[in-house]
User: Fold YhgE/Pip domain-containing protein from Corynebacterium hindlerae.
Amino acid sequence: MNLFHIGSELRRFATGKLPRAAFVVLTLLPLIFGGLFPWAYWDPITGLKDLPVAVVNSDTGAEVKGEHINAGEQVQRKLIESDKVGFVEATAQEAERGVADGTYYFALELPTDFSEAVTSVDSDNPHAAQIATVYNNANGFIATMLGNTVTNQVVSTIDAELGKKATNQLLIGFNTISSGLGQAADGSKKLSDGVSQARTGSDKLAEGNHTLAEKSTQLNNGAQQLANGTSQLDAGIKKAADGAVQLDNGLGQLQGATTQLGSGASQIAAGVDKIVGMAGGLTNAQNQVLAPLVNASAQLRALGIPAAIDLANQFDGVIASISQQGVGPASKTAADLQRLQTGAHALAYQLDNPESEYRQGMTAAGTGASQLATGLGALSEGSGKLVIGTKTLTAGTTQLVDGTQQLSVGAAALRDGLVQLDEGSGELSLKLSDASQKVPNFDDDKRENASTMLGRMVNTHNEGQELTKFGVGLAPFFASLAMFLGGTMMFMVLRPLKRRAIDAGMHPFRVAISSWIPGIIIGSLQATAVWFVLEFLLGAHAVHPLGLWAALIGVSMTFVAVTQSINALVGTSAGRLLCIILMALQLVSSGGLYPPETQPAFLRWFHTIDPITYSVNLFRQMLVGGHSVWDGRLTQSILVLGCVLIGALTITTLSAWRDRVMSLDTLHPELNI
Assistant:
């Protein structure tokens, strides 16, 4: 018998309408999973535009620089205008009621302080804006999950737009900072120049202060001497004032005595006049006596006789002697009396006449003495104040000396500080100049681009494969499910082992192969139907379309062998049940829906030996292609599935060998399905 002889197994479907219909159904049954499911979930993201979602704007707005804005209204309008989700404007009550009864899958609310929050960057309490979401799990888990995804996208979009506006203001601030730093750099340069000049001035100040300290010490010494001198002057002035008072009093007494003396002097002058008068009478008498003698002398001289002349000379001697004696005109007594008379009259004039020089001098002296006493009294008071002032001056000069010493210390510290300030201001000027160059300055276009970039700092850029549609992503999983389901359902109408071949003594391997070939023929038709629907009806556009077709056929052959081996090993009744259980276990652990790392430990372990794990990987490689030459999952999947195929055929062969002896359970099974 030929190794690939299929006998009458498939010919059973060639007669009658129902067998033919059963064959067609068996062939197309995998399309429930391989075609219907991918089609149903082919592109749900695009369909989100018809997903009704309520948008509630409760924002009351905010005042920004005298302008009222309502950011919530702007956001609501943009959401409604977008075609990503079917956003519908609603009130808070309408949204709550609509989410509760299923009119809306979920709702978004922009709270009352939304505008205040988004504009709070310049306030004392900057805080992020909140968007309230309302879900209802009764509207479906997937809807809730999609709603959460949509909310995150909305928040990201709003955040980027608001971040762009805030960043734009920030960049305007950078322009202001750059300009301010430039001005500060100019100012610091002027400061540095001024500090340099101040440093030079501080050196001069230190030198001048040193000179001031020396001079202030000398001034203090002079002030001490001045204080001592003014004290002595004050004492002297007080004595002079006392003397002036005494002088004034004495002059007053002198004036009184002078008046009395004037009266006495007048009396004396009168008495002297009497005496002179009396003396004059005596003189006249004496002159009368001398007259004859004078005449005689003159006559004798007129004679010219020597003897007469000698006698005249003798007469002249007698005349001279008489004149000089007594009260004669040439006598001393007459002269003394004349002087006495003149002096008595002069004394009487000076003492008694108010117009005399003496009396006027005495009056002036009295007046001057009074003024002197008054002036010296005032001078004494002034000298007292001067003493106090000089003492104050001394105290001040002492403080001045102390101050100049402190000033010297301060000037030295100022000079040292100005040295540091000069160095620091120079460095500050350089740093500010460098900083003004480093701080970016944006023109309008550059600021617009920069604010857009900073508002959304990170954008995704796919360097690898583009993301596929949802249905394409699920197709490997559903195709694997379809192939395993096709193999499971197949042996509900096919026999896993041909009893006649076993009874005829055919080799167990030939029995296994001949029983497997009808299954792989139907499985190939199933795989072709699934491939056609995916590639041409749904438009999967596999990277390797023929490879996908070959992979579907190969996986179908493997899964047919697996389901055949299970049915052959434990019988069709238990085998069909085990196949369904195994299919369920493989599906949840295959990684076709969720990564195995997110699942329980047992499923993560079973994932490594799950045949559907490798069929999913194989279909993915054919549908979307490998990402790099280092991706070894294609080879791994082929090798593992090949090993599973060999293992399944081995089990079927051993089961055929075992069934050469028919047991009682085989003749009369406890349960028929």
User: Anything to note?
Assistant: The radius of gyration is 73 Å. The chain has 19 helices and six strands. Residues 277 and 478 are 184 Å apart (CA to CA).
